[in-house]
DNA sequence: ACGATATGGTTGAGTCTTCAACGATTCGAT
DNA sequence: ATCGAATCGTTGAAGACTCAACCATATCGT
């Protein structure tokens, strides 16, 4: 029965399935909460947060994409919506004419501040209220290991892409 | 500065952000791997797995929705696609004329079995290879707590909905 | 200085998901 | 037996995301 595939053990399967259940339930819960209580999707909220933490509340599109873990394309579409709502302002970059800045507007900041309490409450209810401090510490370690591992994978993939087909 | 909001501590913020990074990176990694290596979205793969584990490889649509954590609507759309590909077969239920069965076809089983090694390899690379067995055990506990907590929340929400507006 | 290449960002088409509304059927109370 | 409410599943439209293609600009090698 050794076919070269490193199948999961029973325990690993249980953990994997619970992981899938937990992460999807949590993200759905957060999405629903944010949409209903604050009237803004959770992912858009994260974009506004990234901007609010930048100097002058302004970032280059590409940098904003990295910080909010959006693809360039996804961010471009998202900022179009956010601009239409008046929460973000696009301006073109004078030193690099290809580039564009995104800036959090006053209105955007107001929306962000109004949504923040709902957001933190949802995160607490779903995550920190059900874990003791030891578990929180361990979750930090575990997620850190996952991020590091995947960061390596991603670099490897990019390196492959750079090499080209021959 | 006590405004009644239970803001996150610095440590909690760090953990929360790493959690977001880890879960989104992992799901993107898996999605990409499955799409490229096996030519099937990860979520669809999970639907096929759920079916394959049912007696006769058959489930009611609503039950399949619960097991794969799809909304009814999402599942209905998804099964339409899977049926078009010939991987799933819909049949109407004789005892309950509202209902419908979904059955994994032979072709569907073949696709599933072909994709399984790629899937398990991706899960290992992203998760189990970067964690020691102690961390895996703890991840199981933590995700279990999250699932339990959110299950309660969901019941509460449903109960509210049942009560109606007054 | 010039052409090739790389980068920053946008766009449109296609796909997936959500949401609300719907038709059909079953259940429950009277 | 019948009427109202709940359940099962589907549908269509709107929103969000991905992917590939694309312009415009900047950078690099010569």
TrEMBL record, chains A, B:
Give residue ranges for domain HTH marR-type: 12-148
Q: Which residues form the signal peptide?
A: none
Please give the Gene Ontology molecular function terms for this protein: DNA binding; DNA-binding transcription factor activity
Positions in coiled-coil regions: none
Keyword annotations from UniProtKB, A to Z: DNA-binding
UniProt keyword DNA-binding present: yes
Q: Where are the transmembrane segments?
A: none
Tell whether rRNA-binding is among the UniProt keywords. no
Annotated GO biological process = response to stress
Q: Report the InterPro entries cross-referenced here.
A: HTH_MarR-typ, MarR/SlyA-like, WH-like_DNA-bd_sf, WH_DNA-bd_sf
Name of this chain's protein = DNA-binding transcriptional regulator, MarR family
What is the originating organism of this protein?
A: Haloechinothrix alba
